[in-house]
Amino acid sequence: MTMHRFILIFVAIGIGALLLAALGHFALHWDSTLVGTWTGIGLSYLVLGGAMRLMPRWWREHCDDEYARPAGRRYVRAIWPILISYALILFFSGWMIRRGIESVPLRALLAILPVLPLLALIRVALRYFREIDELQRRIEAEAIGVSALLVSMLYFGGGLLESAKVISLDAGAVMIWVFPLLMLFYGIAKFLAVRRYR
Amino acid sequence: MNNHLRELRERMGWSQAALAEQLAVSRQTVNALETGKYDPSLPLAFRIAKLFDEPIESIFIFEE
Questions:
Q1: What residues of chain B lie within 8 A of the CB of A65, using their CB?
Q2: Alpha-carbon span A76 to A90, nearest angstrom
Q3: Chain A residues lying within 8 Å of B24, measured CB to CB
Q4: Contacts of residue B18 in chain A, CB cutoff 8 Å?
Q5: Angle of CA points A70, A72, A74, to nearest 5°
Q6: Are the C-beta atoms of A59 and A188 separated by less than 8 Å?
Q7: Structural domains counted in chain A
Q8: Does residue A144 share a domain with residue A115?
Q9: Where are the alpha helices (DSSP H) in chain A?
Q10: Chain A residue closest in CA terms to B28
Q11: What is the ipTM of this complex?
Q12: Which run of H or E residues covers position B60?
């Protein structure tokens, strides 16, 4: 799988999600939250595809090299079903909760359902980490370590500001952003680590 | 740590990708080794020495 192909897939998903949002708005009369969600998903994929296209050539070549190797190929093959099932379960869970469920245990189960496919990521990521070569493993470890520390410090700082009543954030939104922030900082740290060993 | 990996590879007429494949590492790793940005582990250093049929100390130069 090359970066070029990733970009095409991201753009296709983005356009697909925007078309679905348009269909929901004009033909299926979805509520504005659902239309907004799909519009957001579509725009996010288009922005991500555009960002990948704007990355320097050496980075795209590094990614092509990484995903052409057996460990990278296996990783990509294993990750698609997880991400697709996550997206479908997220959609299903949100749809069910919006319909209104009285039972708290059932609502809790439905709310955390999207986490389950992501647990499979642990196995896939560990296998990838064990199969890559020693320099790649060092880069991954540095990136994950830096990202974990940055996110921890960010949340620690946020917690102190909350305790001092300087800021007041919605706890649910803050918790949901842990994983995306980890991935964002991991991506930036990996970019810098790869550049260092280039 | 400096090394003679690039000279040895070029003497054999191999590309970085070809050497990487024989060592079961990425091309980036071979490049980082050749430019001295990364020092290999002992098992990888032994694999390199075995591949070129040279003693480790003639490929890698330890500087204090």
A1: 26-28
A2: 21
A3: 133
A4: none
A5: 70
A6: no
A7: 3
A8: no
A9: 3-26, 32-54, 57-68, 70-99, 104-112, 115-131, 134-163, 171-176, 178-196
A10: A198
A11: 0.90
A12: strand B60-61
- For residues A156 and A112, membership in a common domain is answered with no
Q: Could you tell me which chain A residue has the CA closest to the CA of B24?
A: A133
Statement to judge: residues A8 and A46 lie in one domain:
yes
| Domain, as residue range, for A141 | 134-198
Beta bridge partners of B3: B60
Task: Spell out, as residue ranges, where chain B has pLDDT lower than 50.
Answer: none
pTM for this prediction: 0.84
Structure tokens that stand for A106 in this block = 């059932």
In a domain, residue A9? The reply is yes
Domain-ending residue, one of A115, A132, A149: A132
Which residues face B48 on adjacent strands? none
Which of these, B28, B14, B22, B18, lies nearest to B50 by C-alpha position?
A: B22
Q: What are phi and psi of A12, to 5 degrees?
A: -65, -45
For residue A63, tell me if it sits in a domain.
Answer: no
Which of the four pLDDT bands, split at 50, 70 and 90, describes residue A163?
Answer: very high
Residue with tokens 């790793």: B29
pLDDT tens for A122-144 read 999 999 999 999 999 999 999 99
Please indicate, yes or no, whether residues A154 and A127 belong to a single structural domain of this protein: no
Residue with tokens 């954030």: A169
> Where does a domain end: A132, A156, A177?
A132
3-class SS at A191?
helix
Closest CA to A63 of A50, A54, A72, A53: A72
